[in-house]
Amino acid sequence: MQGSGRWHRLAWMGAAAACVVLAGCASSRGPAPVEDRAPVNGAGAASPAASGLPTTDASGKPLPGIENLGKPGYYAVRPGDTVRRIALDTGHSWRDIVRWNNLDNPDRIEVGQVLRVVPPVAGAPLVPPPAVAGTGAIPPATTTPVTPPVVAGATPPAKPAGNPPAASGEDDLGWIWPAQGALIAGFDDAKNKGLDIAGRAGDPVLAAADGKVVYAGAGLRGYGNLIILKHNNTFLTAYAHNQALLVKEDQSVQKGQKIAEMGSSDADRVKLHFEIRRQGKPVDPSRYLPARP
């Protein structure tokens, strides 16, 4: 009996020790981290080494574009990324991303692969071609005017009469509301990247400003039937959960034009989810849209 009691005490102590070890492991693990997408435009993109992403494929061959890792304007593909999602986050057409990176299949990109997400010639100066010797050919003028040197004592050339027109602000696109229904959810940087507007199936969805269709389809999970318009080099707008799309990619649209019919695709009710993205980053549309009466 004494041996039996001793065995039970030892077993109990061993079980208690195991519980302590398991509790320590659980506490050290903590809650699952929430993914914070690294910036995809500019120099702040996370490197594969820093984020645990691979730098080679299964055969040990370096992943495409890995030589550009960490350079401004490049992005390392993360789990769950698609070309269309990256294009939305960078404010470009997905077709541009495909072209800039010579992708054979836009639906096949590898985790850790480094993609160019800015135009290859962005900011490059215009260089005129040299004149052909002996032909008298004059190279075409560049878009940048050349200022003649000032000669001491000479009268400077007269400036054109009047002042040049002031450049309009890049934010001033004459925005309008894309739908007339009640606002059911406002912008929340953590939970809702735009505005949710109620309505009935088939209600018109309007272009909020002049622009060009850079995406029309259902390839982005969570958005349903989606249209993305590019308005200039700064702004995109997104129109999600439609039941019907009335425009095609590369089509130019006018402010107020009906581009879709409201629906409930990939949503729990009929509504329009509307986003304004400034240089790829979601911003509060209420800052740009006119006040409602």
UniProtKB/TrEMBL annotation:
GO cellular component, one term: cell division site
Signal sequence coordinates: 1-23
Superkingdom of origin organism: Bacteria
SMART domains: LysM (SM00257)
UniProt keywords, alphabetically: Lipoprotein, Signal
Family matches, as Pfam families: LysM, Peptidase_M23
Occurrences of domain LysM (ranges): 73-117
Bias kind Low complexity: ranges: 42-52, 138-156
Cross-referenced InterPro entries: Cell_wall_metabolism_enzyme, Dup_hybrid_motif, LysM, LysM_dom_sf, M23ase_b-sheet_dom
SUPFAM superfamilies recorded: Duplicated hybrid motif (SSF51261)
Residues covered by region (Disordered): 36-64, 138-169
Molecular function per GO: metalloendopeptidase activity
Entries under CDD domains matching the protein: LysM, M23_peptidase
Family affiliation: Belongs to the E.coli NlpD/Haemophilus LppB family.
Protein name stated in the entry: Lipoprotein NlpD
